[in-house]
Amino acid sequence: MYALLTIPFLVLTAIVTVATARRPGFAARMRASAWTALVLIILTAIFDNVMIALDLFTYPEHLISGIRIGLAPIEDFSYPLAAAFLVPAIRCLCTPRRAEEEA
Length: 103
Prior knowledge:
By secondary structure, the chain is mainly alpha-helical. The protein has one domain (2-102). Helices cover 67% and strands 4% of the residues.
């Protein structure tokens, strides 16, 4: 169930990111997003595992895929991945082309 919830976020992220492919600085933005995603995924792995180990929250087994990184279900990692690419892509699309070219 949780895995199905991640699909719209990941699809939207892919669509919006691809829509910025012709904008200036796309390669640099993708590199920055990839590094950001890596850091966010590492932080998610650390803090989700700590919070789950401390019993601050749990996931019903029947709602997750069963794939885990430590105690954290793999589904938890889709949101930081999406954010690392979607937020810069939206900012790029909201920036007028002329301002992008001057920067």
